[in-house]
Amino acid sequence: MELMVRSTRSIGEKVEDETLIHMERTALASCRGHPFIVKLEYAFHTESYAILALEYIAGGTLSSLISKSPKRRLPFHLCKVYTIELVLALHFMHCRGIIYRDLKVSLNFLLEYHSQNMKKYY
User: Which residues are catalytic?
Assistant: First the structure.
């Protein structure tokens, strides 16, 4: 399990932070069960922190895989697989009314070591 801890900021920004954290928690919870989206295990908050406990993915990020590849390029067959998994995850989210606009290779894509599966994280 991997913990994601977000602290709330100053009092003026606290309401906005709480809204964003609630939206993220709701989106992760509604995407449970999809094989290419990281699973939310637990979510709770204290007076100062919001904690999202996520499924642990041991393989690193897609960005690190690309940087370790020869000439910093992935083989075409892997590109096809990861693109298909990304499209399926986004379609799943869109069907649930979740629109995600901030995709970053360095942050959003986690890889599992035991398979070539990619998991999307917000």
Answer: 102
